[in-house]
What does this fold into?
Amino acid sequence: MQHWKKVTATIVGVIALTTGLSACNGDQPTAPSAQDQAVHNAESRANYVPKNDVEGKNYNARMEIADNPATILWCTAFPTNPNAAPITVPITGKLTSGNKRPYPTTQDKVYGDGFSHTFSPELPGSDGMFGSSGEYRYGFRPDGVYEDFYNMETICSTEPTIYQKQKTFIDLGSDTSSNSLSQKAVDALKKCRAADPDPSKPCTAAQAALASIAGMNK
It folds into this structure.
């Protein structure tokens, strides 16, 4: 009997010692890992919430320009030949991507009990067209001439700008003379497009005003 009492006392002592050690170890917190600290920092950060909707306003302003058939874009193409000078062309409305389509280009099928349904997973953009932007871009000059900017770097602006190679100029002002003629071309183009919205139809009055700007920049 005494033997079992000693064994029991020994077992109880071992359990008590183990429990005490566990409690002591539990009182010592382990240092958080770098990943845990990063997650904590991300969750506790007070992030700035945009209030002015600049992104949305930029988008709407750009869409208004793109949707105006009387817009004149001055598009400059930079040839890959280093000896060729940049070429600036006035484009009415906007440049259109060569991959834009009025219809979806992919189809999927859904099968059910004895039927199948064909549908397109593509959704049109806000312009009601399908496809991505890029590839080549094309448009029409005020005189109705078609321009295709295939595989060329381009930059377009609503104000005419002179680009020169070898020298770089930073223009912080506006040329009142060219701007006046540009506005005259816009006004003429509005009248032409009101009579006929087809961008391939020439507008001689707008083209004449733009020709005057080209003569100033020579």
About this structure: The first strand starts at residue 72 and ends at 78. Residues 22 and 217 are 86 Å apart (CA to CA).
